[in-house]
Amino acid sequence: MVVLLLESSASLALSVFLVVFLRRLAVPLHLVDVPDHRKIHEGAIPLCGGIAIFLSFSCVAFFERPACLGLGFWMGMVPIVMLGIADDRFALPARVRFLAQILIALALISMEGLGQLSLGDLLPAEAVGGAVGLFVLSVTFVVGMVNAWNMMDGVDGLAGGSAVATLVWILLLAIHIGEEGLAFSVTVLVAAIGGFLIFNARSPWCTKASVYLGDAGSTALGAVIAYFILRLADGAEGLAFPVLLWLVVLPVVDTLSLIVRRMHEHRSPMSADRRHLHHLLIDSGLSPAAASYTLIALSFLYGGIGYLGLVAGLPTSVMTAGLVFVALGHTAFVLSVEASARHRVHRAVRPSINLHL
């Protein structure tokens, strides 16, 4: 325990040092985020938080206990981070990013020998196509999580704070099933994210973020969390994958909702807008900080439900049915907020039309 505390402290301290060091290099390297019609902030903000997290986590996890994470993990994470850095710098086309993410997910799962998910008592593996179907589901999950966490990164502290909320439950589940190596890796990652959040999450000591995750950070966090969940769900004796979805249900449901709404409007699923859940909360009257902490709290709550369901051994079918209610609640909120927004626009336009007539 003392050794783990020292390792975590080293990860946190290194993360803080790297954030301070790298943000000085961000401007000359053109790794900055500038305001536009969607991004409302002051000045150019360095996009080096994710790089600092990944480097500090890697230094401690790889050099202190290299056996805890396989070579395939690092062979997957390094390209994800590099792809994110390239996107931060050059704004890569969505199709190029998506194809690269699929290839990286294929390599990650193949090299780590993952992909044989446990579905609990919900369905037999044959119902989803057997080993091939489970492998495809695993690849889809990794790519989906990469993009879900990237889409979530729109308010100070949200992506990093939600990652910590999810990782806490992953840590407790790893301890519950005796996965000491996984528990160590998660702890070190949480510490690294904590060092970044000092500069990113709004608090009495930080009125606005001085550094952002960048696509390198948000996509890497999504990939790492997906990998940890696949580790927990791997094999016939693994934890039920559908129940583990409770740990990430909020970003997953919001991403699926965005994709459906964009396709319904004949737009690309990867197109940008201000219709994410955090944007809707802000449009409903919450401050950016309140919206961020509300969603972090919800992520923690949903993760706790999943944890308790797994520890208590509740039927997978019952826990999966609960996910449907979360999706329905999300849909009801989104439709309500967007209907109110359309009504406000209609009321604002009508007087001007009458005056013109």
Written overview of the protein:
This protein is an all-alpha fold and 357 residues long. It is 72% helix and 1% strand. The chain is built from 13 helices and 2 strands; from the N terminus they run H-E-E-H-H-H-H-H-H-H-H-H-H-H-H. It has helices at residues 2-26, 49-64, 71-90, 94-112, 130-152, 158-176, 180-200, 214-233, 241-244, 249-264, 277-283, 288-312, 316-356; strands at 32-33, 45-46. Strands 1-2 form a two-stranded antiparallel ribbon. Helix 1 (2-26) packs antiparallel against helix 2 (49-64), helix 2 packs antiparallel against helix 7 and helix 6 (158-176) packs parallel to helix 8 (214-233). The radius of gyration is 21 Å and the shape is globular. The protein starts with a helix and ends with a helix. The model is unreliable at 352-357 (pLDDT under 50).
